[in-house]
Structures are given as C-alpha cells and as structure tokens.
Amino acid sequence: VRSRRQRQMCIRDRCGIIGINSNKPVSATILNSLKKLEYRGYDSAGIATLSSGLINEVKSEGRVDNLEKNSLVQKMEGTIGIGHVRWATHGLPNSINAHPHSSQNVSVVHNGIIENSTLLKKFLVGKGHKFKSQTDTEVIVHLITENLKTENIVNSIKKTLKSLHGSFALGIIFKDQPDLIVGARRGSPLAVGYGPNENYLGSDSYALKSMTNKITYLNDGEFCVIKKDHVEFFNEDGVKINKKVLELSSSEEKYDKGDYKHFMAKEIEEQPITLKNGINEYIDTSNNDINIYNFPWKSNEISSVTLIGCGTAYHSCLMAKYWFEELTSLDVNVDIASEFRYRKNRFKKDTLYVFVSQSGETADTYAALDLCKQNGMKTCAVVNVIESSIARDSGFVLPIHCGTEIGVASTKAFLGQILILYMLSLKIGLWRNDISKEAFVNKLKDLKELPKLVEKTLLTDNKIQTISGTFNEAKGSMFLGRGFSYPIALEGALKLKELSYVHAEGYPAGEMKHGPLALIEEGMPVVVLAPRDNYYKKTISNMQEVIARGAKVLLITNKSKDEVVSENIWEKIEVESTNEDLLPFLLTIPLQKLAYYSALKKGYDIDKPRNLAKSVTVE
Ligand code: M6R
Questions:
Q1: What is the Cβ-side half-sphere exposure of residue 306, based on CA atoms within 13 angstroms?
Q2: Residue among 405, 418, 616, 617 to mutate when testing ligand 1 (max atoms within 8 A of CB)
Q3: Which of 89, 184, 444, 567 has the fewest CB atoms within 10 Å around its CB?
Q4: How high is the pLDDT of residue 478?
Q5: Which protein residue's CA is at the shortest distance from atom 4 of ligand 1?
C-alpha cells in the first residue's frame, strides 16, 4: 500500500511536450504538434532546436498562435528539436518561464513538479550555475549540465533522475549530440513514436498521431534515448530494457470545426450521432442485449460500486448513482477524485471502482485509480480516449465512442459518459436479476429512440439565444432540480460559469429553504428542471417558492398534454418526452446551449475559457 506522501507525489503533471529527431527541418512539425497538445495548457509555448552546433530557443507567452506569429520561429532551423505548451504552476505564465529551459549545453521540456527544486537550486548556485526563470524545471537543466562534466549521457541522466523528487515527463536535447533526444518518465505520461528515418517523443499518442500510429509508452522510472533510426530504453538503474511497440487502432482522425463557429457548437450538434455510435457499439439489437464482452468479474463478486471523476465527469457519476440505485441492488457511492485520493478509504474487495474521464489523463482521477490498483481493487474506466493512461491502467475499459472533443467545456462526452453508465447499470441489473428481462428490453427500445429525441430537442434554439442575455446581466443564477434532474442542474451551472464567467449555482430544489433561498431577490434568473417524473409535483412547489420571492424562472420540462399549473413563470422550454430514465439526456441540451449563447454574447473564447485546460493533468 502506498503511503500518503507517495500518493501525493503520484502523477502531478502540467502541460504537453513533444520531441522530433529527423533528417528534415522540424520546427513546423513541432508547432503543429503543439497545437494538438494545447488542450493540456495554453499559458505559454516554446520550441528549441539544434542547428550549427548551437541550441536555439524561441518562446512566447499565451497561445501557440502567438508562438507561430513569432518571426523567429519561422526562421528556426534544425532537424532535431523539442517543444512545450505550459499550464503554469511554478512562476508566472510569461515567456521567461515558458519551456524549453536551456543552458549552453542542454535544453529541457518538463511536465510535472520537482518538489526538491529549492534545495537543488541552492546546491547548483553554489557550483556557479546561473538561473533565468522562476521555474522548478531549470534545476533539471543545470543538474544535467553539472553531471555531464563527469559522466556520459546515459549515466548523467540516470544520476540526475535519482536526485529529483516529484513527478516528471522530460524531453532533453544536447548541444553536442546532433542525433539524440532523451525522454524520461516518473508519474507523468510519455510516449515514443516511430517513423521512417525519424522518431518522436510526446506527452500522448494524440500529439503523435499525425506522424505515426506505432507507439511505445514509457513506464514510471524508465528513460529512453531516441536516435533517428532506433530507440533504446533503460530502467531507472540505467540497464537497457526491451519494450513493446503498439500499433494504434486508427490513423489520425480528421476533426475540424466545419461550418461551425466553435468546436463547442459542433460538439453540441453532433450529440445525436455520437449517442447513436455509442448505442450501436453496445446494443445487440437481434438478441435484445447489451454487449459488454470479457467483463472480468462475475456478478456475485460485486455488491457495491464506487464512481469517481472530476468536474463534468463527476456529474456523470452522480447521474449514474440514480440509475444504479433504480436498476440494481448494488450499494452506490460517488466521489470527487481529488477528495477520494487523500481520504482514509475502506477498500472492499466486492466493490467495483469506476473511473469516469473524457481525456483519461486527469491527474486526480488517475491518482484515485492508482490508489485502488495499489490496494488490489476491481477497476473499470469509462473514457473517451482509449489510448489514455486511465484506460491503459484500468482492469476493464468501457469506451464512450464519441470522437475527439476539443471544446474545453465538455458536452458530447458528458452525454457519452452517462449513456455508457446507464447501459452498465442496466446490464448489471439484468445480470443480478434486479430487473426483469421484459423491463430491460423495453428500456433498450426507448434507448434506441434517444438519438432522434436529442435531435428534435436541439431545435429549441431561438428562445435560448434570447434568454441567455438575462443570465449574463444578472449577479448570479441558480439551477435547481430533484432526483434525476439534480446532477443535470449541477452540470448546467458548471457550463454557465466556465463559459460566461458569471456565478451560477446548481442545487437540489428541495434544499433551497435550508439556506440558499436567502439569495433569491427580484429578477434573479433561476433555471428549474421539472420533467414529468416522480419528483415533478415537489419540484413545481419548490419553483413556486422561488417565484414568490421574485425569481425569474426558466422552467425546463418535457412535452405533455397536461399544462404546467403555475403562475408567473418567466420562460418555459419543453424538451421531447421519453421514459424517466432518459429525460436527463434531453434536459442537458438547453443548458449546454444556454451556456454557449451566453458566452457568445459576451464575445468570450468559447473553446478555450480563461484559466482552464481541456485535460487537467496537474493535481
Ligand atoms: O477529461 P476528464 O473528463 O477527466 O475531465 C474532467 C474535468 O476536468 C472536465 O469534465 C471539466 O470539468 C470540463 N471542463 C467541464 O466542462
């Protein structure tokens, strides 16, 4: 079992790295790969290449676009180089702190955190090394430079890595080595790619996919020496090891905005198709079944399920709790990964631990998975990126099949995650005889209709555009729901705050009178999710309580022959109708659009909201 300290150190990563060793000039290809890695951070970016026996470095604050515009990048020569996109942890996000960091002899890009950097810096300053930045990374540069005075490349790397406490993925080039990039991993993901007369290093396979589908993943403690025609791998003691080359399933997926203004808009509209893909992947129509092949555990080996994720993925877990409790007799727990990883957990052999993540690289979710693995638990990943660390290291994987999601605000991945979790709860319910085959088949029938209903619900556009202005102008807003609609209320509020930078709070409608009702004042916009389900009447009562206190209520319900009996509703949106289990999918759509249009009206960067990153690879 790992100590708490070891767990804290595990997987703390920031940013994205790339390295290319080729016969051709590399700066343009590195730049393209950095654009792909931008989802990992976009505070600053930089490239270093070797040319004419010197290390050249170009760095810019802000997006990779800024780096591209830098005239020095256009002129960069060299057939070997490294690049980096940063999400700042140590030091301001400016061009001085941007990576690569270089001495005269060595240049380094780094993901992770060096915990003993202050001590190391003191030692190195004592030896006469001069530091330029506020980063922890720079100690690595000078430590290697120092060790190279007495050691060869492999030994200097081995010695340097042993001195570092913390987590890292590193890419390193050397002034005197025109055919060599070193990569090293402890805690932060790193992959090597193989091409014709050139080889690569990258934070993930996504960054390498445009160049190769042949990949080797480094494990913790390993490092590698990448030459143009071959790659050598070493364990932490500097002993050569053999590693497998994996062939990735497909070559690069082409994914662009098409006619849409933003990826988010496209990703919202794609949802009928992505749901259809997910349904086709899992539902066996001829046998009325859900195919979950090779599930490694028998139904009587599991008596509870713990669902773990962050942000939107956590909301998917909360959503799934309602379905698991409804459709199975399992005990269900839901946890935020950053909380789970540091708590004194009671690990139980008969619990299935489910990790939900779009990227499969979220540091806290990975650490929670790692902890479960260290304790010998049953682990299952619900992920979008199947080559991700969480997918690779879980006992079982359920891919969500929704394709690349670029918008930082998760939309189609949310519906993809809840679709898989719904199917998993149905399947486990059937396995354990908690639901009848007849009920199961009826629910499958409804599920197959879902993509069409989502498509129709997507048409409620104009009204939301108009309404969105009110949310922007208000001091804050609330999103209320009960039962199945409560996690959707949380998700709606998260979307609005991350895109429009206005305060929004999701709350269980029944809890309002225990405190938050005090927030309601004349004209405050409140979204009430009240579909015609078991909770309908209760939610309508809660709605009347906020209307009575002056709230401007946007009611989101589903179409029904019965009129909503309530006065003074400000606006009403009706989604399509289906069985109670599936209404959360439909209620999500207007909330995604509300957030999108609010941010659009404000002219904000919709696909890359401020301070956020698509994949949160830092703790
Ligand atoms: O890649 P993951 O699903 O693990 O990411 C988890 C969260 O960081 C993510 O869902 C985040 O909350 C989104 N920006 C929300 O739109």
A1: 21
A2: 616
A3: 567
A4: 97
A5: 357
- The CA 612 to ligand 1 mean position distance, Å, reads 10
Where does residue 558 rank: exposed (0-12), middle (13-18), buried (19+ CB within 10 A)? buried
State if residue 410 touches ligand 1 by the CB under 6 angstroms criterion.
Answer: yes
Q: pLDDT digits over 10-28, tens only?
A: 333 358 899 999 999 999 9
pLDDT value of position 331:
97
Kindly report the pTM of this predicted structure: 0.75
The token pair at 350 is: 């008969």
Burial of 463 (0-12, 13-18, 19+ CB in 10 A): middle
Cis ω before 584 (30° cut-off from 0): no
pLDDT digits (tens, 9 = 90+) for 271-290: 999 999 999 889 988 889 99
- Ligand 1 centroid to Cα of residue 601, in Å, is 24
Instruction: Output the pLDDT for position 20.
Output: 98
Cβ of 358 below 6 Å from ligand 1: yes
Whole-angstrom distance, CA of residue 57 vs CA of residue 46: 7
Which region, left, alpha or beta, applies to residue 362 given φ > 0 means left and ψ of -120 to 50 means alpha? beta
Burial class, 567, CB count within 10 angstroms (exposed 0-12 / middle 13-18 / buried 19+): exposed
Q: Which residues of the chain have pLDDT under 50?
A: 1-13, 251
Q: Exposure string (b/e) for 182-198, b if CB count within 10 Å is 16 or more? A: bbbbbbbbbbbbbeeeb
| Strand 191-195 with 181-186, pairing | unpaired
224 tagged catalytic: no
Q: Distances from the Cα of 289 to the Cαs of 328, 424, 431, 448, 453, in angstroms?
A: 16, 11, 11, 12, 22
The DSSP letter of residue 483 is T
Burial profile 583-616: b = 16 or more Cβ within 10 angstroms, e = fewer: bbbbbbbbbbbbbbbbbbeeeeebbbbeeebbbb
Helices (H) and strands (E) in the chain, counts: 20, 27
Nearest CA to ligand 1 atom 8: 311
- Please state, in angstroms and rounded to a whole number, the distance separating the CA atoms of residues 589 and 596: 11
